[in-house]
Design a protein that fits this description.
The chain is an alpha/beta fold.
Length: about 350
């Protein structure tokens, strides 16, 4: 069954599919930490609703990576390749392939563009217009709104009427990592579905499935990812993970002056999203350092860099740096300037490491 492709939240997905069969809500609010699979489950729901071969839990497409059919490239001279050289055809129905390709006429997905800080009201208005139309080839229209926490107030108000008086043929899945960023009136008109952080074992399995062979690299990424599959994958697959450079920076923090603090702030804390992720990563790294200092590194559970930092740093300094990272992460989430927070953090870390 394709839902076996989900490494976590399978119970949530199965419960939702059962609900969609019986009496679906017009709108669902998927909330939880970043990178834990909310969008993956939302995509699975779209496949379950629109699949033309086996609707419900037995839809024909694997939700996390549906291979879209591609026409074979012509050989030199314009001649088509031989049939034996053609890539294998996708076994999914046409609807599932179209959903994965983003071209299904009854499926719409919007989110924050890469170079934008919010979901634009123009995107919301276009979505509302599409939802008002009758389905073309399915019984329902399905919409996914990703990055919902970046919807500004006008965009949320524009969406509110659709949530209050929804078309009978439309189902909306809204995805957010900051539920409180949405208006109370918007949240109250949606069926809440909350997702928790992933277990370390689930993260390890996800990394293994993606071809990360080194068990130590998988274990380290799974421990430090704070339950986020996206963060674990980024750490494990990066040639030079940011965590290595941040550990090195913590080891040199006692020597930092304003110029050094400014340089690292510009390198690793340029945007709000990057700053929040790296402050959270620093906090997780320092948790490991504190555990290593208190419990010892004889078990080999910690990397050499973690063990060296634990041995060279006073416990009270490590705890002060850990507390500072947590506070800085909260400040960035509350819209504080990320670079300024980073500069202040590294200057404070330098003072703590020097015992000042």
């Amino acid at each position: 069954m394709p839902l076996t492709g989900l490494r976590a939240h399978r119970e949530i997905a199965e419960r939702l599919i059962s609900e969609l069969r019986r009496r679906p809500s017009h709108a669902y609010l998927f909330s939880g930490p970043k990178g834990v699979g909310k969008a993956l489950v939302a995509s699975a729901m779209a496949h379950a609703l629109l699949c033309e071969r086996a609707s419900g839990g037995d839809f024909c497409c694997t939700p996390e990576r549906c291979p879209a059919r591609e026409a074979p490239a012509p050989a030199a001279g314009g001649r088509r390749r031989a049939a034996a050289e053609d890539p294998p055809r996708c076994e999914c129905c046409a609807a599932c392939v179209q959903i994965a390709s983003g071209v299904h006429p009854d499926f719409t997905r919007i989110g924050r563009a890469a170079n934008r800080t919010d979901v634009l009201i123009e995107q919301v208005r276009a979505l509302i217009a599409e939802l008002a139309l009758k389905p073309v080839r399915s019984a329902v229209r399905v919409a996914i709104i990703d990055d919902a926490e970046t919807l500004n107030i006008p965009a949320q108000n524009a969406l509110l009427k659709t949530l209050e008086e929804p078309p009978g043929h439309a189902i909306i899945f809204m995805i957010t990592s900051a539920e409180r960023a949405l208006l109370d009136t918007v949240r109250s008109r949606m069926r809440p579905v909350r997702f928790g952080a992933l277990l370390t074992a689930d993260l390890d399995a996800i990394l293994a499935a993606r071809g990360v062979r080194d068990p130590d690299r998988r274990a380290a990424a799974a421990r430090r990812a704070c339950g986020s599959a996206a963060r674990a994958i980024a750490m494990a697959e990066s040639e030079e993970p940011a965590m290595n450079q941040l550990i090195e920076a913590l080891a040199r923090a006692r020597t930092f002056d304003f110029a050094a603090a400014q340089q690292i702030a510009q390198e690793f804390f340029r945007s709000r999203e990057e700053a929040a992720e790296n402050f959270e990563l620093i906090a997780r790294l320092l948790e490991e350092v504190v555990c290593c200092k208190l419990l010892g590194a004889e078990s080999g559970a910690y990397s050499k860099a973690i063990a060296e930092l634990a041995a060279a740093s006073p416990l009270d300094a490590l705890l002060a740096c850990l507390e500072g990272a947590v506070k800085a992460c909260g400040a960035v989430d509350a819209m504080a300037n990320p670079r300024l927070q980073a500069e202040q953090y590294w200057l404070s870390a330098a003072q703590a490491m020097r015992g000042e």
